[in-house]
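Action item from last meeting closed. Structure (347 res):
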């Protein structure tokens, strides 16, 4: 079957919503176990809220003051997450020039030594580019240092839309689209798996979103390094940026369904209950998503923008079951984690 082209993708966005959903659901059933919907338990720890990027969509950062978590504070939060059956911590933070590169390396090494059973999923491509400039090392050298310290995988944050004209408007101090792709290519070459993301609904065009997907598909053809794609909508206004128009649930589902069809080489597509709520997240399971994302024991950035959707493992399992699927607890690599503790907590 011929792959979906840019023209095809634009046509699909104008297809009646239920027809598009059926196509995406068929593709999802061929790519994954049709009876199963997976979910995860992790903690998203922001190690600092100080950032020099000044992205127009971000409520969380501050230009000065703020905090930088100590190793003991990070360890305490990681330990709390493990006690709640998490198997991963996600570390992301603002970009600042007053903290030496070696401090970040020590942070990873300390956590890896104290929690060898926890997946360390840390540092999005913009952070890696920042560390490269801060240290004077190449991207490959930076990643090798982190891998040696205990880094396991890379989050796909900071992608927003992989079109430089869009990035210049909303995040001009962040890495370019080519740099984001280059970091991921290098990470995959070094053996690091990663997630891929897309934030949309802040004034980009349909063509921009399609370009984003096609760039990810091209890199996945080359490296096979992405384990999942996670699209979500921009939340609310911000310091200087407001959505160009209210972004509807239908628009979210259309974009999600299109991503399942275009990204034919990324097996897992995640529903964003965090930004859409549990009901629309459940609906996404019929529009191409095979994963409900994480229970997310901690999340700060989206909530700073005023979105306050929350859940727990029991509720997430009930939502999946009510949709007619079997819930399965997974790890980052989408291996099932159905140990006794996880299953009992989820009932």
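Sequence:
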């Amino acid at each position: 079957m011929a792959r979906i082209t840019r023209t095809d993708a634009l046509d699909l966005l104008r297809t009646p919503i239920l027809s598009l959903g059926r196509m995406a659901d068929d593709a999802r059933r061929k790519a994954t176990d049709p009876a199963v919907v997976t979910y995860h338990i992790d903690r998203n720890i922001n190690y600092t809220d100080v950032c020099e990027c000044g992205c127009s969509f971000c409520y969380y950062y501050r230009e000065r003051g703020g905090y930088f978590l100590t190793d003991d504070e990070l360890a305490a939060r990681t330990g709390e997450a493990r006690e709640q059956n998490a198997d991963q911590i996600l570390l992301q933070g603002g970009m600042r020039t007053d903290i030496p590169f070696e401090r970040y390396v020590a942070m990873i090494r300390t956590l890896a030594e104290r929690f060898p059973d926890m997946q360390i999923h840390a540092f999005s491509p913009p952070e890696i580019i920042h560390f490269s400039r801060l240290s004077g090392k190449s991207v490959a050298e930076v990643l090798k240092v982190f891998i040696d310290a205990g880094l396991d995988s890379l989050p796909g944050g900071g992608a927003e839309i992989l079109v430089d004209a869009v990035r210049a408007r909303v995040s001009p101090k962040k890495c370019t689209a080519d740099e984001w792709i280059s970091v991921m290519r290098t990470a995959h070459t070094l053996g690091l798996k990663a997630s891929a993301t897309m934030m949309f609904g802040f004034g980009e065009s349909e063509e921009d979103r399609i370009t984003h997907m096609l760039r990810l598909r091209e890199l996945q053809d080359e490296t096979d390094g992405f384990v999942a794609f996670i699209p979500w909508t921009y939340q609310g206004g911000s310091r200087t940026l407001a959505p160009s128009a209210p972004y509807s649930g239908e628009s979210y589902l259309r974009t999600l369904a299109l991503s399942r069809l275009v990204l034919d080489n990324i097996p897992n597509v995640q529903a964003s209950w965090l930004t859409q709520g549990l009901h629309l997240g459940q609906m996404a399971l019929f529009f191409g998503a095979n994963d409900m994302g994480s229970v997310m024991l901690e999340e700060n950035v989206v909530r700073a923008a005023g979105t306050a959707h929350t859940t727990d493992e029991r509720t997430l399992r009930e939502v999946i079951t009510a949709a007619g699927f079997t819930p399965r607890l997974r790890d980052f690599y989408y291996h099932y984690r159905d140990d006794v503790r996880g299953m009992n907590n989820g009932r």
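Note appended to the action item: The chain is about 45% helix and 15% strand.
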